[in-house]
Specification:
Layout: E1 7-9, H1 11-14, E2 25-28, E3 36-39, E4 43-61, E5 73-91, E6 97-99
Parallel strand pairs: 1-5
Antiparallel strand pairs: 2-3, 3-4, 4-5, 5-6
Length: 102
Amino acid sequence: MEEEYVMIDLDDVSRHIDIPSDAPYTLSGLDTLNPVLTIDDKIKLVGEYIETIGTCLAFSDKGENQTPQKKTVEPVAKLHKILKFRLAALDNEDGVTKTTNL
């Protein structure tokens, strides 16, 4: 079975809400048309696959002892899909779910 990599695009969402970098998340339904990303059991995002134009490349830092002036990177994968998310629901402190369209 061949591995497939997908880039997750949260740009539209991050303009409207703050997503803590250490928040736990669940990503489900990757094999569906609209995967769901739930962050910190409070924020529900609905995704949509977008085909890339051309090929996107993903890179990784290659090892330790690198300086900001000189970093070595290596290609990890070619990406053919972007998973773009939008805000579907947000639970407030009272446990009430608000839906929104961005």
